[in-house]
Amino acid sequence: MRARRWAPRGQSTLELALCLLVFVTVVMFGIHFAEVGYLSLKVHEAAVSPLWDSTAFRVHRMLEKRDTIGDFGAFPSIAPRVMANARDRYRDFDGRSSTVGSRAHITQAFTRVDDMRVRCAQDEEVEFDLPRSRRPALRSPLPGNWGTYPPGQDVGLPTDSVLDGIYENLGGISCSAEAHLEGLPTLPTGFMEGEGGFFDEKHATLLDMKVCATGRAVGGKCQGRYGILLGDFGFSDPEVSGHCPLRPEQPDVPCSENPAFYYAAMKVFDTNGRSAGRDATKFAEFFVGDSPIDESGFFMSYRGEEDDYIERDTPRGESQDEIDRPRNTGGVDHKPTPKRRPSNTCFLGLQEC
User: Fold this and answer.
1) Are 272 and 136 in contact (CB under 8 A)?
2) Which one of 30, 137, 193, 301 is at 20 to 30 Å from 278 when CA atoms are compared?
3) Which residues pair with 181 in a beta bridge?
4) How far apart are CA 60 and CA 233, in angstroms?
5) CA dist 14 to 6, 9, 19, 164, Å?
6) What secondary structure, in 3-state letters, does the chain show?
7) 139-155 pLDDT, tens digit each
8) d(C-alpha 340, C-alpha 250), whole Å
């Protein structure tokens, strides 16, 4: 009597059914985690976007006033302006359009995010340090050592800067953002688990959490923020780009075409105590009997390239200087049309120079 042999059937179907149990779970949670990651990035974007917008606003302006040169009056308004703009643009979690959307949430397959909040404020912790030191002690030099301060000399404070009143450290702004994120009922919380089931653990727990632009919420509050240092070059305006011809016979007289630039440079000169002594004046008086200029006076000259300003008359032999010729003025290799403002005083007061 022969044993009956049964043909194998249904094994592939059984393997497919078992694999689908795991595959469906992986796919659903893969989609859910991708949605959480994408929506969290929109919150991060809402905090960073106003920071970049803030760099387009004016921070520093130069005024044509001797005592008040640097104008930072517009700085406090930057943070509120970029914050209001970001709140409008990211209310619908999409800052790509200039038109504010009607929805205040994003709902995807298994995840929903809403209640976007953006905050920006002036931040003094974001700062740079200007060069700071006491006024230079050059009026009483000591052989082989640093100079000392004469009795009663005003040397200022260690935190003083020669740029005070011209370019000040105002810091920057910082921004943060947060939103509410939750899992939707479309993500099953139970799927063949428990006693007699295929899985030992519960399938899912629906999320209900606060999403922060940076870091995680602590005690239900977002602590982190992004900051950016603000500042611009106040001398880039057309009104401070005018020429300032040298006037050796008129110290401390501002040039009419560029008084803001002149006052800024003179303020630094004043803060440093002007000239360090009168040694140059004494030198000139000893050798030629007179000093042609006031050594403690302030002189400034500014000429742009468009002025083609070079000196026609230079010291004897300078044009033949092969080493320094590229830096000379008035040499034989210079092509611009020479323009020289005539001076009424020779060097050190010498005649026939």
Assistant:
1) yes
2) 301
3) 113, 209
4) 7
5) 18, 10, 9, 81
6) CCCCCCCCCCHHHHHHHHHHHHHHHHHHHHHHHHHHHHHHHHHHHHHHHHHHHHCCCCCCEECCCCCCCEECCCHHHHHHHHHHHHHHHCCCCCCCCCCCCCCCEEECCCEEEEEEEEEEEEECCCCCCCCECCCCCCCCCECCECCCCCCCCCCCCCCCECCCCCCCCCCEEEEEEEEEEEECCCCCCCCCECCCCCECCCCCCCCEEEEECCCCCECCECCCCEEEECCCCHHHCHHHCCCECCCCCCCCCCCCCCHHHHHHHHHHHHHCCCCCCCHHHHHHHHHHCCCCCCCCCCCCCECCHHHCCECCCCCCCHHHCCCCHHHCCCCCCCCCCCECCCCCCCHHHCCCC
7) 455 566 655 666 776 66
8) 18
72, 63, 45: which is closest to 230 by C-alpha? Answer: 72
Distance, CA of 88 to chain centre: 25
The pair of structure tokens assigned to 293 is 């200029």
- Residues contacting 151, CB < 8 A, separation 6+: none
The predicted-structure confidence for 204-247, as pLDDT tens digits, reads as follows 677 788 999 998 888 888 989 999 998 877 777 777 888 888 88
Q: Which two tokens stand for residue 313?
A: 């008359």
Question: What CA–CA distance (Å, rounded) separates 197 from 21?
Answer: 11
Cα–Cα distance for residue pair 89/177, rounded to 1 Å: 13
CA 249 to chain centre: 41
For 7-64, how does the pLDDT look when each residue is reduced to its tens digit (9 = 90+)? Answer: 566 677 767 777 777 787 788 888 888 888 888 889 999 999 999 999 988 888 888 8
CA 89 distance to own-chain centroid:
23
The answer to whether 252 touches 258, Cβ cutoff 8 Å, is no
Residues 6+ apart with CB under 8 A from 68: 165
Residue for token digits 């002690």? Answer: 137
